[in-house]
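In the previous chapter we treated chains in isolation. Here, by contrast, the input contains three separate entities that must be folded as one system, with a combined length of 1713 residues.
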Amino acid sequence: MAADPSSSSTGQHADDFCAAPPEDARQTAMSGPLNVRGERRPPPMQRAFSRQVSLGSGVTVLGMDRGGRNGGGRGQRALPRSGRSLGVLNHSGALGAAGGDGAARRGDFSMFRTKSTLSKQNSLLPTRIRESDLELPTHVEDQSVGRPAEDPLNKSVPAGRYFAALRGPELDEVRDYEDILLPKDEVWPFLLRFPIGCFGVCLGLGSQAILWGSLAASPAMRFLHVTPMINVALWLLAVAVLVATSVTYALKCVFYFEAIRREYFHPVRVNFFFAPWIAAMFITIGLPRAYAPERPHPAVWCAFVLPLFALELKIYGQWLSGGKRRLCKVANPSSHLSVVGNFVGAILAARVGWAEAGKFLWAIGVAHYIVVFVTLYQRLPTNEALPKELHPVYSMFIATPSAASLAWAAIYGSFDAVARTFFFMAIFLYLSLVVRINFFRGFRFSLAWWSYTFPMTTASLATVKYAEAEPCFASRALALSLSLMSTTMVSLLLVSTLLHAFIWRSLFPNDLAIAITKDRQNGAVKPSGKGKRTSKRVHDIKRWAKQAPLSLVSSITKSNSADKEEEEKTE
Amino acid sequence: MAADPSSSSTGQHADDFCAAPPEDARQTAMSGPLNVRGERRPPPMQRAFSRQVSLGSGVTVLGMDRGGRNGGGRGQRALPRSGRSLGVLNHSGALGAAGGDGAARRGDFSMFRTKSTLSKQNSLLPTRIRESDLELPTHVEDQSVGRPAEDPLNKSVPAGRYFAALRGPELDEVRDYEDILLPKDEVWPFLLRFPIGCFGVCLGLGSQAILWGSLAASPAMRFLHVTPMINVALWLLAVAVLVATSVTYALKCVFYFEAIRREYFHPVRVNFFFAPWIAAMFITIGLPRAYAPERPHPAVWCAFVLPLFALELKIYGQWLSGGKRRLCKVANPSSHLSVVGNFVGAILAARVGWAEAGKFLWAIGVAHYIVVFVTLYQRLPTNEALPKELHPVYSMFIATPSAASLAWAAIYGSFDAVARTFFFMAIFLYLSLVVRINFFRGFRFSLAWWSYTFPMTTASLATVKYAEAEPCFASRALALSLSLMSTTMVSLLLVSTLLHAFIWRSLFPNDLAIAITKDRQNGAVKPSGKGKRTSKRVHDIKRWAKQAPLSLVSSITKSNSADKEEEEKTE
Amino acid sequence: MAADPSSSSTGQHADDFCAAPPEDARQTAMSGPLNVRGERRPPPMQRAFSRQVSLGSGVTVLGMDRGGRNGGGRGQRALPRSGRSLGVLNHSGALGAAGGDGAARRGDFSMFRTKSTLSKQNSLLPTRIRESDLELPTHVEDQSVGRPAEDPLNKSVPAGRYFAALRGPELDEVRDYEDILLPKDEVWPFLLRFPIGCFGVCLGLGSQAILWGSLAASPAMRFLHVTPMINVALWLLAVAVLVATSVTYALKCVFYFEAIRREYFHPVRVNFFFAPWIAAMFITIGLPRAYAPERPHPAVWCAFVLPLFALELKIYGQWLSGGKRRLCKVANPSSHLSVVGNFVGAILAARVGWAEAGKFLWAIGVAHYIVVFVTLYQRLPTNEALPKELHPVYSMFIATPSAASLAWAAIYGSFDAVARTFFFMAIFLYLSLVVRINFFRGFRFSLAWWSYTFPMTTASLATVKYAEAEPCFASRALALSLSLMSTTMVSLLLVSTLLHAFIWRSLFPNDLAIAITKDRQNGAVKPSGKGKRTSKRVHDIKRWAKQAPLSLVSSITKSNSADKEEEEKTE
C-alpha cells in the first residue's frame, strides 16, 4: 500500500475525510498523535489492523483503538471524569457498569464537549507532545492544507444526512448500515442522553394546567364543577418539571455544547428549541388565578418571547434566504412547533395587556403557518420521505390552528369568524388523525411522545373557548370529550414516564441521533468493497475532558459565527 | 422454451405479472384452468399461439381465447348475461351487434366484476375441476408463491400510471403505444362505459336550476322579470337526470365494482366521486320556493354531507399522510371538485339553519382551497404535465372561489370583504380563462364537458349575489352576461348530449381509462423486442359472470381495507 | 468539407443554429449576402478565418467581420446611424470614443432592431443583390428548410437560459464562460444600454414623494412639522424622471424592440415591466394636495391600471397554464413586483373613489401574493438557485405586505385586523432582512438598486398609517426611523446616481443580460473540442439600420402572436 500512495490513499482522501494516513506517516503518528491544530492522526498500527475488520464490528475496533491509546500510559485523563465530577447526575456509575472492561472500553465522548473547553485543555498538554508535533511540520501542514474541513464536528451535519442516517418516531434511531461516532453498546453520559425533546413534557404538563384552569373557570363548563385545585397541582408539577429540565439542559449546554449544536442541526430537533420558551409561556398563562389574579408584568412576555423571536428570525431566515436548509427540504410536521410559539406568545401578550404585540406575533405566525401548512400538505418530493414511524408527529398539525384560534380570540376579544375558521380547521385535522389511529400505534414509548399531548390539549382549550362562544350541548360535549382524551393521554404518559424512569430505568436511551457521521461511510455504501475500507472513526483525541464551565458564552458566539458562514454559502 | 424455464419464463415473471406459464404446466392448466385461490392459469394452447401474435392484434387473440373457452363447451355462462338480465339497459344487444362473430369475439369483462360475486361463483363450480386443481398442488403453490401480486386488479393502479398511459381532456384516451386490458374494437357493456363523470350533467343542470331560481327571486335582477317556471322545469330535469344517473351508477357499483375501484384510483376521476353529493346538494338548494318555501330538514344536510365528508377525510388524508398519492403529484384542476363540496355543503348548512356546521365546512374548504390553489399555481414539476387537452379542466378554477364567496355570504349573512375577495378572485380567474379561449376549443365533445358548466354557473350565481349587495349597472350587467353565457353553454351541451345520445348513439364510448394495465408492458416499451413478448392479457378466468347483487357491501369493505393497506405503505 | 455536406453541415445545423454555411456556398454568399427571407449567410471568407479563432477572441473576430463588411464598400449604412439621428441622446459620440478604430470595430446591433424595420429595409435593397439570391434558389431553400428556427432572435430565450448564463444582483452579468451576441469590449448604443430597471428610479422617487406628503399631512406625524414643500419638490423630480425614462424607453421600444423582447423573457426583468405603471400610479397618489385637493378622475386609474392588468393576465396566465414558464421555475423575489401593482392600483382606486374596483384589485393581489409568498418561502429546487448577489432583491418581500396593508386600509376605511396583519408581516420581514444586513453589502452600484428603495418607503408609509391608527410613542418612533432610513437610502442612491451619470459616466454599462445566446455554445461547454467549433456569432446582416418608427405596433402584434405560440407549446 505504501508502494502506491497516490492511488490508494490520495484517492481515499478525496472522498473520505477520515481516511487513515499512508503507512509512511507511521513514524510521525507514533511519535506524536496530537498536533496543534487538532487534525486527527491515529496510531497507524491500530489503523492497519482495523482495515481487516468488518463493518459490523467497527464499534469494537473503535473501542480497542481507544483502549489501546488509553492503555498506552500517556497519562490522558479518561473521558467520563467530567461527568463523574458533576456529582448530581451520576451517569458515570451506569457507564462503568455498561462498559465491561472499564476504562479500556469507554467511548470517547469528548468530541461533543464544548469546544473552548478543549482548546483550553490543549494548551495544558505536556510540552513534549506538542514539540514532537512541531518536529514534523511538513506532514502537519500537508494534511491540514489538504483536508481543511475533515473534522467531523467542525462542520455542521447537513439536513439530508439526518434523514438518510436516521429513522424512528423522532428521527432518533440509526439505520442498521450506519456507523455512528459514539459506541452503541455502552451507556453514554447522562447529559449526552438528555435530548431537547424532554421539554415536550413541560409542554404537555403546562398546557394541561391551562386546560384545567380553563375548565374550572369557564362559564360554559361550569356544569362540571371542576375544582381549581387540579389546576394548581398540575401547575406546580409543570413548574417543577420545567425547572428540572431547564437546569439539566443548561448543564448539557455548558458541558456538551457540541452535542447541542448537533441537535440544532437535526431537522426535527431544531424545532424543539422553541419548546422551552413555549413551555415557559404556558406556565405563565396557566398561572392559577387564585394566586395571581392580576395580569403578569409585560417583562415576563419580553423574557420569553425575545429568545423565541430571535430563534424565529434565524430559522425562518434559513428557510427564506440561507444556505441549503430550504423549507422544501427540511419541512416536517414538527416545523409546526416553530410556528405555534407565535400564537402562544400572542395569547400571553393579550394576557399581559400588549394587544398590539400580540397582533404582531399573530401576523408572523399566520404568515408562516400558511407556508408550513401548504408545504406539508403538498409533501414535495424534496421533503425527505417521513418514515412511517414519524406519524405521531402529525398530531402537531392540530396544535397550530388551535393556538391561532385561541390567540385571535384573546387579542381581538371575540371568538369571531377568523377564530372559528382556525378552530374548525383544527377540529377537522383532529378528526382526520383520529380516523387514522393506526398511525399512532405500535411505537416504542419515548419522551418525545409528550410533545404530542400538547396539540390535543390546545385543541381542547380551543373547544372550551368555542363552547363559551356557542354554548350548546354539542359544543360542550365536544369540549368535555376532547378534554378527557387529552387528560387521559397525559395521565398514561405520566405513568409510562415514571415507570420508565424509576422502574425500568430506560427513560434516557443513548441519543444516537446526535452521533451520526457527517458523510455516509464508504464501507456502509458498498459493503462488498474488498479491503479498501479503512477505519473511519478516528476521533479527535485532542478533545478530552476537564470542565471549563465559563466557556459557554464564548463557544456560543463562536458557533454562531460558524453557523453564519455555513448559512451564507448559498449554492 | 421448456428447456430453459428459468431464463425465459422466470425472468418474465419478475417484471410481467401476466406472463404465460411455462409449457410444462400445460397438463395442469388443461385439466384445471381454475384453482381455488384464484390464480390465473389460462389454457396454454392458446397461450402458445398468442405468443406469435403481434401487439396490435393482441385483442383478437384475447377474444379467441375467450371464444375458444366458451366454445369448449364447459358450460360457462357468457359474460354479458348479467347485463342482459338487467333488462332495462340493453347493452348486450349493442354488444352483440358490435362483436361480429357473436360469442367468439366477445371480450372478457369479468375482470371488472365485483369480486365477491366471483368468489361466490367459484364455490359453485363443479367439484371435479377443483379436485383437478388439488391434484397438482405444487404448481399452484409455486405460482402463487412466486408471484403473489400479479393479479392486475388486486393491486390498485398507481397514480403515475394513469398519467403515463392516458391522455385527452379527462385523461380518458389511451396513448397509442399502450395496451389495455379490454378489447378496443368492441363495444363494452353499457355499465362499464358509464363513467363517474356523468354526474357532471347533474352538476350543470342542478346549478342552472339554482341560477334561474336566483334570477327569478333576486331583487337585483327583478328587471329581467324571469318566470320561476324556468327554475321549476330545470329543477325537475335535474332531478330526473340525477336519479337516472345515480341508479345507473349504483348498478355499476353492484356489478362492476372493480371498474369503480379503477375510477377511484384515477387521479382525475377520483374527484368526480364528490360530484354525486354536490349535485344532490345543488338539487336541495335549488328546490323551487313555490313548492318548498320552508327550510329543508337538517337530516337532508347530513345525508348528503356525511358521505362527502367521509370521502374528504380519505382523500385529504391521502394527500397529507398516506402512501404515494402526494398532493404534489396528483394535484390537477379537477382537485377543485374535492374542495368545492365543502362550500356547497356550507351553503346548504346555512339553508337548513345549521350555521355552525356551515362554518365548519367553510373552514375545511378554505384551508384545503389554499393548498390546492397554491399547488396548482406553482405547477410543480412533480405535477405530471397536464396534456394540452386537459385545459378545459381549468374552468374548475372558477368554481371554488365562487362557491366560497356564496358560502361565506350565506353563513355570515352579508356579502362582506371576505365574500368579495373570493368573488373577485373568481372573476379574475374567469377573465383569465376567457382571454385564453383557445384552450377550450378543438376538443371532442364528451359528457365530462358538463362539469365545466357548473363553474360558470356558480360564478354567475355569485355575481347575482354581488349585484344584490352592490346594485349598480355594472354589477347587473355582469350578472346578466355571465348568466347568459352559462345558460348558453348548458343549452349547447344539452343539445349536443341529446344528439350524441339518440341520433349518433355515441354518448358512451368505451371507457378506456379504467382498462389500462398496471405496468407498462415490455412489448410496448420496446416494440422492436424480438419474440420475447409473450401474451400478457391472460385474464383471470375465474372472474366470470353470475349476478350476486347483495355482495356489494362486503366487497366495498374488502376494497377499503385493501386500499388502506396500500395507503400505509409509505415510502 | 464540401464532399460530405450532410455529415458536416447538416449535423451542425441540428444543434447549432448559427453554424457557418458549407464552403461551396461561398460563391453565393459573396455575390449576395442577403436573401429574401432573412437567412443569415455571412461572407464565408471571414467565416473560414474565424474558425481558427479561439473562443475568447470571438468578439474581436466578430468586429473584424463587421469591419470587413463595412469596409467592403458595399454602401451599407453603419448601424449607429439611427442612433445618431436621434439627436437628443447622443450615444453615437460615446460609441465612437469607445470603439477605437471607429467603424471597423463597431458591433452589429441590428439584431435587436425592431423587426418590421428590417424587413421594410430589405425591400429597399438594390435589386441586383436580391437577384443574385434568386440565381441560387436551391441553396437558399435548403438552408431555410433545414433550419427554420435558427434565428437567434426569432425564438424567445427560455427562462432557464437566463439563470444559466447570468449572474449578479439582477441577473445582469454574464458568466465568464458564456459568449454573448454583442461585443463586450465596445460601448453599445445608449438605447440598448437603457434597461427596463431604470423605472426603479421612478418607483423610489414616486414613493418618497408620497411618504413626505404623508409625513406632512398625517396627524400622527404632526409633531415633526414637515413642510409640504418637500413633497412638491420630490413630486416634481419624480415626474421629471418618469417622463424622461418613459420617453427614452419608448424610443428603445421603437428602435430596438427585439432587445425589449429579450428583457421581457428575462425572469427578473419581466417583473419590471410592471414598474412604469406602478410608478405612474405613485405619481398620481403622491400628487401634492395643495395643487390637486380633489380626487383624480377615474380615467387616470383606467389609464394606468389597464396596461398593468393586461400584463397580469399574461404573466399570471403563464404561471398557471402556459408553456414552461411555470411559477415553480421562474419565481424570484422580484416576482413581488408583479403582485404589488394590484395593491397600488387598489390604493389609487380608493383615491379616485372606485372602492369596488379597488377590492377587485386587492383580491387579485392577495390571491397571487399568497402563491408567490409560499413559493418563495419554500425555495423549491426547481427555483433556479438565486445567486448570492441577488440578495438585495429580497427587500421586495417587504413591499407587497406593506402595500396590501395600505390598500386594505384605503379601501375599507380603517386600519383593521387585516391591514394590521399585513403590516406586521411587513415589519417582521423588514426585521428579518435588517438582521441579515450582510446580504446587502458589497455589491456594485447599479440603477436597479433604486427598486429596493421603494419597499422601504412603502413600509414607512404603512407605519405612518399605523401610527395614525395607534398613536403612541413606539409607533411614531418606528414611523420616524423607518422614514429616515428610507429617505437616507434614497438620498444616497440619488447622489450615487448623479455621480455615476455625470462624473464617472458609468451609469449605463452594456446591458449584457439581453445579449446572451439562446443555447449554451458547444465551445463553451466543451472547451477541449478539437476544431469542430465553427464561429457561431454570425449575425443577421439583413438587420441593419434605417428608422421605421411607425412599425412599432405591427411588430408588437407580431411579437405577441409568436409569444402566444410559444406559450401554447405546453410540454
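Chain B touches chain A through 31 residues (CB under 8 Å). The two ends of chain B are 38 Å apart (CA to CA). Compare these points with the single-chain example from earlier in the chapter.
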